[in-house]
Amino acid sequence: MSNIEKDIEHGGQVGEQYARPKQTGPDFTHGVALYLENVSVWFDAFRALNDLSLYIQEGELRCIIGPNGAGKTTLMDVITGKTRPTEGTAFFGQNYNLAKMSTEQIAESGIGRKFQKPTVFENFTVMENLLLAAPKDKRVKKSLFRKLSADAQLALDESLQQIRLQEFIHKPAGLLSHGQKQWLEIGMLLMQRPKLILLDEPVAGMTDAETERTAELCLELKKNHTLVVVEHDMSFIDTISEKVTVLAQGAILAEGTLAEVQANEEVIEKYLGR
Ligand SMILES: Nc1ncnc2c1ncn2[C@@H]1O[C@H](COP(=O)(O)OP(=O)(O)O)[C@@H](O)[C@H]1O
Ligand SMILES: [Mg+2]
């Protein structure tokens, strides 16, 4: 038996040299989950983000709106390490310098992201998709098609309950509706137990009923997570939003309640139209 197998056999107690260094987790002692300061992203001469500063409080649900090309997705790319800021700093809590971490390290530190398009594995069942999304812990991996560890079972149960797909657990994901696939993907994020969740246009292409259900889901997630949600659907934003940030041409145009930003002259001019 190899040392790694022994390690698994003994629940990681033997051969600690193979165990991952213990993650301390993000430090939110100042009440702030995310600090972006003077962030610019240049694509050649084009500035997708232009000297943007944004602070997200722990436990907040922040909505980000703005015209196409405003830089909303680029902002999420910076937070998740997919794109590096050309200038400025990005911190998760006090202690994680996002600009110096790989996308994998950022995910492990507690940031989960849902992209615009669902990326579930269509041939796998709902349950298999969720288990495949579990943290890449060797014990969980080994137990994937055997007996579930207590922790993986708990994460699975909690995740299924939140996305309300219990009755479809053995159904191939390819047979789910578009909305159900989006929820499954949110469930896959939850398997990682993220502290900060980023959702990019979660209700695009959803029916009205699915959109309503997604709003409920966001409000439930808010009880235990910090969320940043990018959306164009104003009635959805109205249902879930506290503070709204309007982005245009890579910079913040306005911040406030939805009613406040909707009454802002510049926002009307550059985004909402007259
Ligand atoms: N990898 C890239 N290379 C060049 N330009 C890009 C890249 N990614 C985004 N952009 C440009 O940056 C701008 C902002 O894009 P994006 O962040 O996707 O906007 P939004 O999500 O608000 O619609 C757009 O003009 C887009 O074409
Ligand atoms: Mg986008």
UniProtKB/TrEMBL annotation:
Annotated keywords: ATP-binding, Nucleotide-binding, Transport
Entry-linked PROSITE patterns: ABC_TRANSPORTER_2
Biased composition (Basic and acidic residues): 1-10
Pfam (any one): ABC_tran
Region annotation (Disordered) ranges: 1-22
UniProt-recorded Gene Ontology molecular function terms: ATP binding; ATP hydrolysis activity
Record-linked InterPro entries: ABC_AA/LPS_Transport, ABC_transporter-like_ATP-bd, ABC_transptr_urea_ATP-bd_UrtD, BCA_ABC_TP_C, P-loop_NTPase
NCBIfam families: urea_trans_UrtD (TIGR03411)
Annotated protein name in UniProt: Urea transport system ATP-binding protein
